[in-house]
Specification:
globular, four-stranded mixed sheet, eleven-stranded mixed sheet, about 300 residues, single chain
Length: about 300
């Protein structure tokens, strides 16, 4: 069983319009709703890959009720979300069908009380003994301490459970110091963490700050990874066009599933890149084009040096 943590869950709403123009009225051609927040997206991809997944985090209000209804209907996902008094946020993605661009609008999350945070920590600690790995994903809702992920990393490590951290800003900086097994920033998040805009140098610096392995998302250019076993660059065979929302979450699912299956790093990275690209071809986050994934996985170029990290 794999555990994903989404402290700032959401109801993801995707609108498709013919062309998005400022100061204009738009007719929406299609609306979709899905449970959202990075960890829930990761969980749905993991389930589609055949892994059993438990999701936890916070959920509340009418929007939270809709999220839970969707989760109940999701095969392979166990719902262990912790209730709060505040309302779960919504995220709005507007897809411009003419250009293929996506505009994202993210509401703030509910304010979490100290008692609610304590209840979550107890629930999280109870879940860990039955887990093969855990992913800590996304932003922190108001009221949750900025060092929350650092504490959750340490709790997972004390339980002997490998942990992947995917967040940004101060939460990432503090979380890295707790020595997670993997972090997966994008290039901008990595530059903010290290002060370096040269990806390889920044990746190495992030390892020195505490992360055992660093996998940096380079967008359409693929992934750059550094671990104790070596350094690798994984590049997709072709540039794909579509909705990039959730592509990074699918990469996390690829890395986490590869970790649990004890795949070599090049195979993990090829899976992550193929899943990420196949997600761009899917209509909403947390899904991927299965046929594209199978076709792309064998064509991802992975180059690097074993034991060069």
């Amino acid at each position: 069983m794999i555990l994903t943590v989404t402290l700032n869950t959401a109801l993801d709403i995707t609108y498709r319009v013919r062309a998005l123009e400022p100061h204009a009225s738009h007719r929406v051609s299609e609306v979709t709703e899905r449970p959202g927040g990075k960890g829930l997206n990761v969980a749905r991809v993991l389930a589609a890959l055949g892994h059993e997944v438990t999701v936890t985090g916070f959920v509340g209000g009418a929007t939270g009720g809709v999220v839970q209804e969707h989760l109940t209907a999701t095969s392979g996902v166990v719902n262990a979300l912790v209730p709060v008094l505040g309302a779960t946020r919504r995220t709005i993605a507007v897809v411009d069908e003419r250009s293929g661009d996506t505009t994202q609008l993210n509401e703030p999350g509910p304010t979490v009380t100290p008692a609610e945070w304590s209840a979550f920590q107890e629930a999280y600690e109870d879940l860990l003994p039955s887990m093969a790995a855990v992913a800590l994903c996304g932003s922190l809702p108001p009221g949750v301490p900025v060092g929350a992920y650092a504490g959750l990393v340490r709790t997972a490590r004390a339980a002997g459970v490998p942990v992947l951290l995917d967040t940004s800003g101060e939460a990432l900086r503090r979380g890295v110091a707790a020595r997670p097994d993997i972090i997966k920033p994008n290039a901008d998040e990595l530059a903010e963490l290290t002060g370096s805009h040269e990806p390889l140098r920044a990746t190495q610096d992030a390892r020195r700050r505490g992360a055992r392995a660093v996998v940096t998302s380079l967008g359409a250019e693929g992934l750059l990874a550094a671990s104790p076993e070596g350094r690798w660059r994984a590049t997709p065979p072709t540039r794909v066009h579509g909705n990039p929302t959730g592509a990074g979450d699918s990469a996390v699912a690829g890395l986490l599933s590869g970790l649990v299956e004890q795949l070599p790093w090049p195979d993990r990275l090829a899976r992550a890149v193929a899943l990420s690209a196949a997600t761009v071809l899917a209509p909403v986050a947390g899904e991927f084009d299965a046929s594209a994934y199978e076709e792309l996985r064998g064509r991802v170029a992975v180059t690097g040096d074993v034991n060069a990290a």
